[in-house]
Amino acid sequence: MAEVDLPSKIRAAIKEPHGVVNRLNTARIPLCLPPLVQAPTLYTLGLSRYTEIYLGLEEIWHAQIGDFADWAGNISEDPSSYGSDAERVQAVLRLIYIPELLRTRRVEADFEALKLLDPSIAKLDMGKENAGSEFRRYMKEHIPAKPHLLVVYVWIMYQALFNGGRFIRLQLLKAGPEFWGLSPREMDPTAFPPPLSFWCVEEGEVVQAKFRNSVLKADKLLTETEREEILDESREIFRRCELITHQLDEDVSAGGYPTN
What is the mean pLDDT of residues 179-198? Predict the structure, then answer.
């Protein structure tokens, strides 16, 4: 019987919690778009909470792997070639590093563009404590001690961008270019500019295939204990994502955020 690879194990581990979070978030996308609202204020609020995860994982990732130019294309896939667990795990994190995946600069550019669209967006207090920023702080405190856990953050969050992102892009298109401050020509779902560049992965199918292949290679460098800890952390990710969405509901219901 063929051994089950790590991506398949993660998929099985998160099947139920992923379904819960997916249903919650899918139901809320229309609430952020016309005709229910006239400005992307609620979209910006929700994006600001969830992108804390991407900003956090990319900050930690870069701290763990060092300068890409120093090691690109020079990673052994033989576990015995590493003199310590730290070196081996660093190799894992380098193997799965694909610059095209990175979202930090896109997030920053999108928020700058969104702030120009409506005065209420510029006034959003996106820096206040919330479930998203708490999740980012948890990652910063928890992952450096067990850096192999970063594998599951990378896998889940970028797979979400590839898979759920396709559906979300179609929903965003329905809002029309004027809603986003764009021209009709700029509303290209394969190359969204700010304020929607977060959702764009150029040559997405090629990058997704490269991404999966890199994770399969990295899997061979992990120990069984590390794999088990990765699977445990996968459920924690979705527990915290569910908290983010429920808190967004509470914050909007409590008032202070324009809903029309």
Answer: 91
